[in-house]
Specification:
Radius of gyration: 23 Å
Number of helices: 14
Structural class: alpha+beta
Helix content: 25-40%
Oligomer: single chain
Distance between the termini: 48 Å
């Protein structure tokens, strides 16, 4: 595997992710058993066709704001952060409990119950809404801020630097679809908090962002609706188109910047040890990685095919060519057949196993957490101990509507200093919820929580004006 060349880094400050925290509700619903029987779904479709075993279920006292605050509190305790160390809290969500008030202000209010009133008065917060890519846009914004923030204390003497400030990006969502709908088994809930700063211990982001956007109706939630409208097959195709477009944008920009310049017969993905995709459900990352690898392997220099392309063609034959078919329908059928055979080829399966598969470890047990799903993939690599210093990671983020970003990061020499998350153990300690209780929680009809809150922030109530009140429960 080709490692990154540290001499090729851009001149800007090294910034990235220093630490990560994940909050997952303590309730879960197994998809095989009562759920699959009552919904009339073949368990094999769920376990293999979709790739999900269990989905996290938010209790009656939980919402996107409480989960975000719980993730942030854990992050601060893990990293020894004080309120004055944090300059910005940016939140990516599509589950915000208010149409105007930023979710981060609720989070700050909760944090001040622990750290003292006014302790976050100098902290800026804003909410990013862009379906499942909102958190990645927030991360991009904070990385630019962290790289070029003014470290001189106002009014101080020359050279009198204030303590380095950090930013936090929080993803927090509850994926919710109508009961008995085709999207119900791709639900989930959780929050991920990322500590963003200069000289990070975990990942240095290379500040090359490939982008793609277009107007689509693949997934949206009209005003006043509690659940989203999903055009499933169309959404899958939008995902693939957008991620491929963002990848091409990244490849071109990385080449111009000197970050990745593949020699003859090599590909951009040859320079990536792991690739993380947005995970609406685990099987989707197989489709996405097949699309990216196929596209990348055949886009290398026409004068010399990549070794992967040669291996694939030796196994399943040449790519279909438009001039070989009488009409568009025949070409599309041939393309679909070739894509299926490509996804089963030894060459692709080896690449998927080595670079992508482990990123879905936690999503199989949690489900879709929307804008945080790609960073749950990062936590999966940490849990599997698959982050090695010197490796390069590629990130392919997607948000319906639709937008995509592709960027890269390198695992830092001090990554091993970052404490383990213990997520696999925490997931094993969750409580299984019955289908009836899950449905009451889903519909907002549960009169009380299934589990007694302890050591966490909770939604204490909603007043007559609709304002939400939160408390910290010891």
């Amino acid at each position: 595997m080709k490692k990154f060349d540290s001499k090729a880094k851009p001149a800007a400050q090294v910034v990235g992710i220093d630490d990560i925290s994940v909050y997952v509700p303590r309730l879960y619903l197994p998809l095989v058993g009562e759920f699959s029987r009552q919904r009339g779904i073949d368990p094999g479709k769920l376990l293999k066709g979709i790739g999900i075993e269990k989905m996290a279920v938010a209790d009656a006292h939980e919402d996107a704001a409480t989960m975000a605050a719980n993730a942030l509190l854990d992050l601060m305790r893990r990293s020894g952060l004080r309120p004055e160390d944090i300059d910005k809290i940016y939140v990516g969500t599509e589950s915000a409990p208010d149409e105007a008030k930023a979710l981060g202000t609720y989070v700050i209010g909760m944090m001040e119950q622990v750290y003292g009133k006014g302790s976050f008065h100098e902290c800026e917060t804003v909410e990013f809404k862009a379906a499942c890519i909102g958190t990645t846009f927030a991360l991009e914004s904070l990385c630019y801020w962290a790289a070029f923030q003014d470290r001189m204390e106002d009014g101080g003497a020359e050279g009198d630097l204030e303590r380095e400030k950090a930013g936090v990006v929080i993803a927090s969502d509850i994926a919710r679809y109508p009961l008995s709908s085709s999207g119900e088994y791709t639900q989930g809930a959780g929050s991920v908090a990322l500590l963003v700063k200069r000289d990070p211990r975990l990942l240095a982001i290379e500040q090359v962002w490939g982008a793609f956007s277009r107007d689509e109706n693949d997934f949206f939630r009209p005003m006043g609706c509690a659940t989203a409208v999903v055009n499933g097959k169309h959404s899958n195709q939008c995902y693939l188109d957008a991620v491929q477009g963002a990848f091409d944008s990244f490849a071109a920009r990385a080449g111009r910047r000197g970050i990745i310049r593949p020699p003859e017969g090599c590909c951009v993905t040859d320079f990536m040890d792991r690739i993380l995709f947005h995970i609406p459900y685990p099987r989707m990352i197989e489709y996405a990685s097949a699309a990216i690898f196929r596209h990348d392997w055949k886009r290398s220099s026409k004068r010399k095919k990549s070794r992967q392309q040669e291996a694939v063609e030796a196994e399943i034959g040449d790519e279909p060519l438009a001039e070989e078919f009488r009409d568009t329908g025949e070409l599309q059928a041939a393309e679909a057949d070739y894509s299926r055979r490509f996804s089963r080829s030894r060459t692709f399966l080896q690449a998927f196993e080595a670079k992508v598969k482990d990123t879905a470890l936690l999503s199989r047990q949690v489900g879709n957490i929307y804008t945080g799903s790609i960073y749950l993939g990062l936590a999966s690599l940490m849990e599997a101990q698959k982050l090695m210093p010197g490796e390069r990671l590629g990130f392919a983020a997607y948000g319906s509507g639709c937008s995509a970003l592709f960027f890269s990061a390198t695992v830092q020499p001090r990554a091993e200093e970052v404490a383990g998350l213990g997520l696999l153990q925490r997931l094993q300690e969750r409580r299984e919820v019955s289908l009836a209780d899950y449905e009451r929680l889903h519909e907002g009809k549960a009169e009380r929580s299934i589990l007694k809150p302890a050591g966490e922030f909770i939604l204490a109530g909603v007043d007559g004006q609709g304002y939400r009140h939160y408390e910290y429960i010891e």
